[in-house]
Amino acid sequence: MTSTPLPPTYVSLPAPPIRISFPSSPLRTSSPPSPRRISLPPPALNVSTATDPVRSSSPPPVIKRFWLCWFAMTQTKSPSRFW
């Protein structure tokens, strides 16, 4: 019976450190995140014209960055703080 409440607490513990680690120092202190966010819109247009195989090679990194941002937001569970 005591081993049941332990797992949830353990899973809840790693969440806070990851969230503080993401927007606390690396993202907040670094200025790259801002330019990258502005860089996202232009490539997004490329995805529309991604008819050529060469163009298709470009979207992957952009999508990866966007997914990373979304993953960070999901981990933080505080969109207002991340934005």
How would you characterize the overall build of this protein?
- The chain has 83 residues and is mainly α.
- It has one domain (6-82).
- The chain has helices spanning 6-12, 15-24, 26-29, 33-39, 41-48, 53-57, 59-76, 79-82.
- It starts with 5 loop residues before the first helix and ends with a helix.
Brief write-up:
The chain has helices at residues 6-12, 15-24, 26-29, 33-39, 41-48, 53-57, 59-76, 79-82. Residues 2-53 have low confidence and may be disordered. It is elongated and about 60 Å long.
- Range of helix content: over 70%
| Strand composition percent | under 5%
Query: Distance between termini?
Result: 41 Å
The poorly predicted ranges are: 2-53
Can you count the beta strands? Answer: 0
* Number of continuous helical runs: 8
Order of helices and strands, N to C?
HHHHHHHH
Shape: elongated
| Overall pLDDT level | 52
Number of domains: 1
Largest sheet: none
- CA radius of gyration: 18 Å
Specify the structural class: mainly alpha
Produce the secondary structure layout:
Blueprint (H helix, E strand, L loop, with lengths): L5 H7 L2 H10 L1 H4 L3 H7 L1 H8 L4 H5 L1 H18 L2 H4 L1
